[in-house]
Design a protein that fits this description.
The chain has helices spanning 23-39, 53-61, 80-94, 105-118, 244-262, 272-276, 313-316, 335-339, 348-361, 365-369, and strands spanning 10-14, 16-17, 20-21, 43-48, 66-70, 98-102, 122-126, 128-136, 141-153, 157-161, 169-173, 190-193, 225-229, 266-270, 303-307, 324-329, 342-345. The chain has 371 residues and is α/β, with parallel strands linked by helices. It folds into two domains: 10-193, Rossmann fold; 220-369, TPP-binding domain (Rossmann fold, 3-Layer(aba) Sandwich), CATH 3.40.50.1220. The protein contains ten helices and 17 strands. The strands form four sheets. A seven-stranded parallel beta sheet has the order 7-11-6-1-4-5-12, sandwiched between helices. It starts with 9 loop residues before the first strand and ends with a helix. The structure holds flavin-adenine dinucleotide (FAD). Flavin-adenine dinucleotide binds next to helix 6, helix 7, strand 16 and helix 9.
């Protein structure tokens, strides 16, 4: 049995975007702080590539006890194999107890490869982290103070994943599930520059050119109100087929009224089932950028309208932290109605025009939107 007693501290991988830490990095700092506090260990932010002093300080302000940074010139432009070499060397030497990344392009690119090099496990797409114990029935052994990595799994359940017998315990967190800490400019921390010792290295690939991908047209995470549509828009309450464009137009109208009257940024969301239905009436109007859920975006707006959405676990994990949920469904047993603050058993084709006119005329609907 390996001795991991010298593995300590919780590490989080931080990304710099336009000269400061990305919003997702602030989220991973919050996630890391939560578990570091429970373990009574330090939270260490790791930054690779160029970063100003102010950016590094931002990591302390948002929760880190210390920042380790490495600005080896070979780290620019980004090249995954090089990043993995540096992170593997750093991690092997310093032995963190846990190492957490964000589940984004970069996290998906490097976290699994680092885990493979370190011969440890990786729980991807976690939505919650905690500290807890695990009993291995085969070994008849209890492991204490483990990182509990919580994620939706196998379609219908929430799984708790443990890495009892390997270190570091590694996870990626899904963006949108952790709220950044309030910045504390008085928080004290330390900084350490790490010099990579692995030399030039020889790689089977080189980076010749880098191009920014276009930003998504819709940024659901910026919206205060999200009006999401599901497959329920295909039929009305009497079971008659409806042109889904009608419901889409109602949703757009609702969005416009909310924006104009309440000055709140509103956007349209959708379920995966609706998008996968590839309806020609909605072609180009709703895309993957609008998808909320496990394989879409995780959101927590002030108000979330779930319209004709059953509330599968994969959808719920992407929106259940919304401050107010308004669910409209003809089926009183729909799971979405159970988590809604305003469960409305009604045909969406009746509800939507009513909601629009209530908001336009400024009576009842205000209670929902003016949270
Ligand atoms: C690995 C995996 C990942 C997934 N990722 C995602 C994801 O990221 N996001 C996501 O959304 N799904 C995801 N899914 C799909 C998910 O399991 C569900 O299939 C999907 O969320 C269902 O979408 P829906 O609610 O629109 O459709 P349905 O489940 O068909 O629900 C339609 C609802 O509309 C109601 N309804 C019908 N007519 C009306 C009416 N006239 N008025 C009011 N209500 C009405 C019905 O009662 C029903 O509850 C994933 C699945 C898997 C296996």
């Amino acid at each position: 049995m390996s001795d991991y007693s010298d593995y300590k501290d919780v590490w989080v991988y931080l990304q710099v975007e336009d000269g400061s830490l990305s919003r997702e990095s602030l989220e991973v700092l919050a996630a890391g702080r939560k578990v570091a506090d429970k373990l009574n260990q330090k939270l260490i932010g790791v930054v690779l590539g160029p970063a100003t002093k102010e950016t590094l300080k931002q990591a302390i302000t948002y929760g880190a006890s210390k920042v380790i940074y490495c600005n080896d010139e070979s780290l620019t432009p980004y090249f995954n194999l090089r990043y993995i070499d540096v992170l593997t060397e750093l991690t092997t030497k310093r032995k963190p107890y846990a190492f957490i990344f964000v589940e984004n392009e970069l996290g998906r690119d490097i976290a699994p490869r680092v885990a493979y090099r370190l011969n440890t496990g990786l729980a991807t797409g976690t939505i919650e982290l905690d500290i807890g114990e695990f009993f291995n029935a085969l070994e008849k052994k209890k492991y204490e103070n483990l990182l509990v990595q919580i994620r939706p799994d196998f379609g219908t359940r929430i799984a708790k994943i443990f890495t009892p017998s390997r270190r570091p315990q590694m996870a990626t967190i899904r963006p949108g599930n952790f709220i950044p800490l309030e910045p504390d400019t008085k928080r004290r921390g330390s900084y350490e520059e790490y010099k990579y010792e692995g030399g030039q290295g020889s790689y089977p690939a080189v980076v010749q050119d880098m191009k920014e991908l276009p930003k998504p047209k819709v940024d659901l995470r910026e919206a205060k109100v999200i009006i999401s549509l599901g497959l329920g828009i295909l039929k009305d309450g009497k079971g008659n087929a409806r042109n889904p464009r009608e419901a889409y137009d109602f949703a757009v109208k609702l969005k416009e009224v909310i924006q104009a009257k309440y000055n709140l940024k509103a956007e349209l969301g959708a379920t995966r089932a609706l998008l996968y239905a590839n309806l020609k009436e909605l072609e180009g109007l709703l895309t993957h950028d609008n998808q909320v859920g496990q394989t879409g975006v995780t959101v927590a707006p002030d108000v979330y309208f779930a319209i004709g959405i059953s509330g599968s676990i994969q959808h719920r994990v992407g929106m259940q932290k919304s401050k107010k949920i308004v669910a409209v469904n003809t089926d009183p047993g729909a799971p979405m109605l159970k988590i809604a603050h305003y469960p409305i058993v009604e045909d969406l084709y009746d509800f939507m025009p009513k909601m629009i006119s209530m908001l336009t005329e400024g009576n009842e609907g205000r209670k929902i939107v003016a949270t």
